[in-house]
Amino acid sequence: MKILNFGSLNIDWVYNVDHFVRPGETLSALSVERFCGGKGLNQSVALSKAGASVFHAGGIGSDGEFLKEKLKESNVDVSFVKVFEVPTGNAFIQVDASGQNCIILFGGANQEITKEYAQEVINNFQENDILVLQNEISSINEIVTMAYEKGLQIVLNPSPMNGKIAELDLNKITYFMMNEIEGEAITGTDEPDKILDIMMEKYPHSKVVLTLGDKGVRYAEGEKRIAWGSYDVTAVDTTSAGDTFTGYFIAALAEEMEIKKALERASKAAALAVSVKGASNSIPLPEEVDNCRLILKNN
């Protein structure tokens, strides 16, 4: 079983601020740093750090070669990464004093993904291989269709949530990895149990992982429901929490780990990630996750 992450590659500019800038306000940042980012890159790094063998496909500009090097250093196969004649995608991230963030994305090369390029990549994978998708690249509708026809397991993180998700045939998705906001957008309710029930009613052949921040995570598969709590850590930067969780959870799936254990491991990894500033660099290694002593707040 191989894992293909067809995902975004961004240059992250992180501005540390006292508070998020308001309309009409000019705000001086306390500091600015550049990081390797993009939900795609972060999830590939998390997958690899969690022990999975992962191939990354996606686009960069000539200014983004260091992102490709970051993936290589993280033992991610980059043979499917393509260089386009446009700038690399960028993310402009404000991180406030409490560690919360808000993000502006510029798509750049992430929006140059064509059906033809996607087909070339997917031709290298077989039935039951795992495809990981987010919503930061172009042609995801075509990618989902091609992957489904080939029998790949499709893991969708519908972030950012917008009209492109509504255009997808979500019955083709094997695993939904989503938070409360994305769950509400798809189901029309913000109540976690109802989100899961509606998802199972609408997409009975899919599985759903619903992350709830400091309220933990819920899992649904048919009539099965599993919950896992969150851990008591000091949040410094929440930017990579979801991507770290996704990477560790999918890696556990590839290892055929029992679901409750997979939720526990992914939750610990995400908790460690938020205690470090930055995105991909904050993703912990397996020995850090397995040896950490964290207090479970709720379950």
Order of helices and strands: EEEHEHEEEHEHEHEHHEEEHHH
Q: Enumerate the spans where pLDDT stays under 50 for 5 or more consecutive residues.
A: none
**Distance N to C terminus:** 32 Å
- Which descriptor suits the 3D outline? globular
Query: What is the residue-mean pLDDT, rounded to a whole number?
Result: 94
Fraction of helical residues: 25-40%
Spatial strand order of the main sheet: 5-4-1-8-9-10-11-12-13
Q: Can you count the beta strands?
A: 13
- DSSP strand (E) fraction? 15-25%
Largest sheet: 9 strands, mixed
Number of helices: 10
Task: Assign the structural class, choosing from mainly alpha, mainly beta, alpha/beta, alpha+beta, or little secondary structure.
Answer: alpha/beta
Radius of gyration: 18 Å
Labels describing this entry:
nine-stranded mixed beta sheet, 10 helices, four-stranded mixed beta sheet, 299 residues, 13 strands, 33% helix, alpha/beta
Secondary structure: elements and pairs:
Blueprint: E1 3-6, E2 10-16, E3 31-37, H1 39-49, E4 54-60, H2 65-73, E5 77-83, E6 89-95, E7 101-106, H3 115-122, E8 130-133, H4 140-150, E9 153-156, H5 163-166, E10 175-179, H6 180-187, H7 192-202, E11 207-211, E12 217-221, E13 224-228, H8 241-254, H9 259-274, H10 286-291
Parallel strand pairs: 1-4, 1-8, 2-6, 4-5, 8-9, 9-10, 10-11
Antiparallel strand pairs: 2-3, 6-7, 11-12, 12-13
Helix pairs in contact: 1-8, 3-4, 6-7, 8-9
